[in-house]
Design brief:
By secondary structure, this protein is α/β, with parallel strands linked by helices. The protein is built from 17 helices and 14 strands. The chain has 2 domains: about 200 residues, Rossmann fold (3-Layer(aba) Sandwich), CATH 3.40.50.300; about 240 residues, 3-Layer(aba) Sandwich (Rossmann fold). Helix content is about 35%, strand content about 15%. Helix 2 runs parallel beside helix 3. The longest helix has 14 residues. The two termini are about 30 Å apart. Bound molecules: adenosine monophosphate. Adenosine monophosphate binds next to helix 3.
Length: about 450
């Protein structure tokens, strides 16, 4: 069904065409008519599903034209990057209207944000802390609000912002439309939804557990002391356009970036300890292709939409299984194909077991051909026994001694392993075995490093 049939005005249908959207995504099909009809909405959907346009298009349609006065729409976002990204989507989708969007978030000066507010914005996209500052200063009033969007509420809960969300929500007029998006809706979030919404329509796009079909994802068992070496080898042998490497911690991200730089592979870093300027620069550089490697923590990278990310490498196994789905979802966005690799030590087997249960599939184990595995082969990652997660049990890493060999043991050619859930479509983006350069889709191993600056995004 084309966008026009969803009841959107011409200005938005044209904008969707300019953006190359041919068909509405499932969440757009369900949410757009509901929001146009003035209903409150709970959307359980994660980023990558077309969620932003699912709320931005009908909101822009409802607003019609710019009106001087206080903002009529407030969108709350958990991170600065998401706020900036969502503001950009509103501007792009509203390009054939005269509606104005302003973004306010911490980490930068107040001056230009204050000026944008004073110039008049129909739509305000904000993170909670800076918004509360402006509300306290009485620089903003929410008295004219018609639509409130609470986006990525599960992430706001994780980040400890939920009380701020409640405080802001209680300052909004009760007669309003509220749209609420969260990848998962556990009881704590359900409570916020009850507080904020009236008789909502529920739209569930069950992707939280599902790995996008266009993503090939694999697991590389390795001993802890060889993890970085394997990361380097994978990077060198993978023909990627752009890659995001996920670290569990900010310090870990810095350490990886430092070591990559020392190995001649400079990378941008994105995490909460960096200044806003550094974060903006890192992301802009990555989006433009100036950096082709971005090392990030989950929090900073959650929801970030960078088209054309060809590979995701998970350096530390996430503790929360849904973070696995989010991380690998940074590639393969909007139907593009992508590859994701996770480096796993035996100590991390428990977390892998949780992930495999969560997604309902075994992740294929691979060995990198020619890699000098200590003991001659990759270690065994045993996820078969229902053990308690060692990390959670003791609050510290605990070595497990599994027998057998993981993956194909590096016995020539591409690594062999069992089939995971999305393995049937494409293998070309995998690191290729050193002895089989013909398997390389674009040239000889490592050539992409030198070609990287020409990558298009
Ligand atoms: P989101 O879930 O909002 O983060 O969107 C993920 C990506 O999908 C963004 O790059 C959007 O521009 C893109 N997108 C959104 N809607 C569509 C659509 N109907 N067709 C194709 N791409 C879309």
């Amino acid at each position: 069904m084309p966008f026009k049939q969803l009841g959107l005005p011409d200005a938005l249908v044209r904008a969707s065409q300019v953006m190359g959207y041919t068909q509405p995504t499932p969440i757009q099909l369900r949410a757009i008519p509901a929001v146009l009809g003035g209903r409150d909405l709970i959307g359980s959907a994660q980023t990558g599903t077309g969620k932003t346009a699912a709320f931005a298009m009908p909101i822009l349609a409802r607003l019609g034209a710019h009106r001087p006065g206080p903002p009529r729409v407030l969108v709350l976002e958990p991170t600065r990057e998401l706020a900036a990204q969502v503001a950009a989507s509103f501007r792009e989708l509203g390009r054939f209207t005269n509606l104005r969007a302003a973004v306010i978030h911490g980490g930068v000066g107040y001056g230009s944000q204050r000026a944008a507010l004073r110039a008049g914005a129909d739509i305000l996209i904000a993170t909670t802390g800076r918004l509360l500052d402006f509300l306290q200063e009485k620089e903003i009033t929410l008295s004219g609000l018609e639509v409130l969007v609470l986006d990525e509420v599960d992430r706001m809960l994780d980040m400890g912002f939920i009380n701020d969300v409640r405080r802001i929500t209680s300052q909004c007029p009760p007669q309003r439309q509220t749209l609420f998006f969260s990848a998962t809706v556990p009881p704590e979030i359900e409570a916020v939804a009850r507080f904020a919404l009236r008789n909502p329509e529920r739209v569930e796009i069950d992707r939280a557990r599902a790995v996008t079909e266009t993503i090939t994802h694999n697991l590389y068992p390795v001993l802890h002391e060889q993890k970085f070496e394997l990361l380097l080898a994978l990077l060198n042998r993978t023909d990627f356009k752009s890659v995001i490497i996920f670290s569990r911690t900010k310090h870990g991200a810095d350490r990886i970036a430092r070591k990559l730089k020392a190995a001649g592979h400079p990378a941008a870093t994105l995490h909460a300890n960096r200044s806003q300027n550094q974060r903006t620069e890192a992301l802009a550089g990555f989006k433009s292709g100036r950096h082709d490697v971005l090392v990030a923590t989950d929090i900073a990278a959650r929801g970030i939409d960078v088209s054309g990310v060809s590979h995701v490498i998970i350096f530390d196994v996430p503790e929360k299984p849904d973070d696995y789905v989010h991380r690998i979802g940074r590639t393969g966005r909007a139907e593009a194909e992508g590859d994701a690799f996770m480096l796993v030590t035996p100590e991390e087997s428990g977390d892998v077991r949780d992930i495999e249960r969560f997604i309902g599939a075994r992740i294929e184990r691979l060995a990198l051909d020619g890699f000098p595995y200590k003991n001659g082969a990759p270690p065994h990652i045993d996820t078969s026994r229902p053990l308690q997660n060692p990390r959670r049990k003791n609050g510290m890493h605990q070595q497990q001694h599994g027998g057998g060999q993981g993956g194909g043991g590096g016995q020539g050619g591409l690594a062999k392993g069992t089939r995971g859930q999305n393995q049937s479509r494409r293998q070309s983006g995998r690191p290729h075995g050193g002895g089989h350069p013909t398997h390389h889709p674009k040239g000889k191993p490592g050539a992409h490093w030198r070609r990287a600056s020409t990558s298009t995004r």
